[in-house]
Design brief:
- The protein has 144 residues and is mainly beta.
- The protein has one domain (14-143): Beta Barrel (Lipocalin), CATH 2.40.128.
- Helices cover 6% and strands 49% of the residues.
- The protein has a 7-stranded antiparallel sheet with strand order 3-2-13-12-11-8-7, with no helix packed on it.
- The protein starts with 13 loop residues before the first strand and ends with a strand.
Length: 144
């Protein structure tokens, strides 16, 4: 896996990733898994990062279109996120990061199928996995 200098902005125009399977976790346990022939398209425009899940067969678990404000590096991954000053999410890691980083918007209320963060894992700068974390209830969907 690639490593990065943490908490740096990561500049890009577009990422595309073709998944073939997924795993869904809740409370640290795999609650569902299977085939998922989904194309993840991540495009940056002037003010936000748009994410589309083309051919989304998991629409009851995760929205097909959503957005983030920034892409930053963590030590072992890249993280897509929004840092709102006020939100309906009560997540310890999310709250900690929004205190470390500057707010990217005043208010953001997330739905149960809208990710609060996305993680992009790479090996030799090739995407090998993308994970999306939802809150209310807390779940993680990993696409491979």
């Amino acid at each position: 896996m690639d490593t990065f200098t943490p908490f740096q902005s990561f500049e890009f125009n577009c990422f595309e990733f073709q998944s073939s399977r997924y795993e869904e976790y809740s409370k640290g346990k795999c609650i569902s898994s299977g085939n998922a022939n989904i194309t993840v398209l991540i495009k940056k425009n002037q003010h936000q990062i748009n994410v589309k899940l083309l051919g989304n067969t998991l629409a009851s678990k995760i929205k097909s279109e959503f957005e983030f404000d920034v892409l930053i590096s963590l030590e072992d991954r890249l993280q897509l996120t929004i840092f709102p000053q006020k939100t309906n999410v009560e997540d310890t890691t999310f709250t900690l990061l929004k205190w470390i980083m500057a707010y990217t918007r005043e208010v953001k209320n997330f739905t149960s199928t809208e990710p609060i963060v996305g993680h992009i894992f790479t090996n030799n700068m090739k995407i090998v996995k993308i994970a999306f974390k939802m809150a209310n209830p807390e779940r993680l969907i990993e696409l491979y």
